[in-house]
Amino acid sequence: MSLLTVGSVAFDALETPFGKTDKIIGGAATYITLAASYFTQQNNLVAVVGGDFPQDMIGLLEEHGVDTKGLEIVQDGKTFFWSGKYHEDMNTRDTLITELNVMEHFDPIIPNSYQGTEYLMLGNTVPATQKLVIERLAKRPKLIMLDTMNLWMNIALDDLKSVLKLVDLLTINDEEARLLSGEYSLRKAAKKIMAMGPKTLIIKKGEHGALLFQDDRIFFAPALPLEEVFDPTGAGDSFAGGFIGYLAATDDISFENMKRAIIYGSAMASFCVEKFGTERLVNLSKEEINARVQEFVKLASFEIQ
Amino acid sequence: MSLLTVGSVAFDALETPFGKTDKIIGGAATYITLAASYFTQQNNLVAVVGGDFPQDMIGLLEEHGVDTKGLEIVQDGKTFFWSGKYHEDMNTRDTLITELNVMEHFDPIIPNSYQGTEYLMLGNTVPATQKLVIERLAKRPKLIMLDTMNLWMNIALDDLKSVLKLVDLLTINDEEARLLSGEYSLRKAAKKIMAMGPKTLIIKKGEHGALLFQDDRIFFAPALPLEEVFDPTGAGDSFAGGFIGYLAATDDISFENMKRAIIYGSAMASFCVEKFGTERLVNLSKEEINARVQEFVKLASFEIQ
């Protein structure tokens, strides 16, 4: 089934305890579509970049089967740029530079050939823009998944609540779940958030795994304990891309299949952090992914009658 | 098989966001033996209390099948007393009062009838005392498990390292694993710690579950997301008690059985935190425990070919 991803395509400059990079390709939609590309063939992208965005980076997405018809290029504009620095624990980071540039007036135009998409992934961006995308789709997708962050809870809460009413699945981290719900207990937080609209909620906990909530059901997904996290940038988006790419490929949105999708998403995130930026994500084989998924199976399986 | 637990039996006074208690029964060995009592019949205790320790609290242990022959009562001494206050996140706590009292000169005397124990649980206490216990056993147990804490890493590291050489299994939390190894990555930390002696390591992560390491194998155990953590005191000891109690009852120290034991231990910890002190732990049925274990099975199970 076809997947449409809307979100940022950007330049990132990163610094971690292991080194630093100049401007490399980044952005939520980049990680999402790259991760999804290992699962689904119909991988459509709506995003905006400036005239400074190199053609070979667009080529990189296309090589991975990403349809870039919806990638608007504003010739006299500059691409969204984010620069950040991670500390030793890799859970906290300082934003050094944020230049919205062309993202500031991002008007998500949906190409006609993308209409009728069954799966919609709204990468983290302005909630009003996310809502606009849903309104511009002639037919409601089978599954709408939304990622967001604390920033929008602080400066655009009403818009966020408005779009939350329209989506099926929300993914946020544990801190954001606590912020959005005002509840410390994640179980209580999940109930309050699901009452805001999304029937399904994924709470990402980084090295501690992820929790999937739907009605009264909960699934606790493990994270692979890694020797080294080289660069956590894009881990959450790779997770989301692997997750929804797997759902789109299997076209099964049951709770049982979402559990599998979380494992595939976690596998993609575990690859992502092994190198800088998208470096590891663009060089994967299906065999590597399946072997990594088997590591998760071994990691989490036990037998009790 | 018989289990011997050595550790503190104490008074605790607790304050959490949900209320506070006067002096109630506490101490590592109390929680461990109570949790283990639901699994193993031969549940022996070596500890020390003062003349102020009420007979009915000893009776409480005995009602749960704990053999208190090894519980020394120093008539003119006072029982170890700890008082602490938890904050909203329940992961951090302030120690308000620590009165070692009779624990300061604790000389662990092993009753003859305890000799030949197959399973030994050394609750968190002075490392030199833990070592003394091992030396006083005529026959080496099949499994020696040790719990410790950051305090001993800071003030008695040599003694701790000396006893670590003698044990099979160490249980500590993630912060302590990082402190003891000097490694941030838990996978690297585990390797270094296992090289210090224990072939098996359990890293407890509270609400994030636990990791079991042995050779190159890793098991990621989930924690049950709870609506409310009422009082976290004793959770780690209840975990340890359920774990080693299950091992002793099944007399199987394979990695596969340790996985099951972790789930039983996690179930006991999840009960423990539902009420103040030992309140929930002393009023459990096997049916409740089995039902809770099934919740863990549902929580963590997924199927991937």
Automatic annotation (TrEMBL), chains A, B:
It comes from the Bacteria. InterPro entries: Carboh/pur_kinase_PfkB_CS (IPR002173), PfkB_dom (IPR011611), Ribokinase-like (IPR029056). GO terms for cellular component: cytosol. Pfam families: PfkB (PF00294). Keywords: Kinase, Transferase. Residues 20-279 form the Carbohydrate kinase PfkB domain. The keyword Methyltransferase does not apply. GO terms for molecular function: kinase activity. This is PfkB domain protein. It comes from Dyadobacter fermentans (strain ATCC 700827 / DSM 18053 / CIP 107007 / KCTC 52180 / NS114).
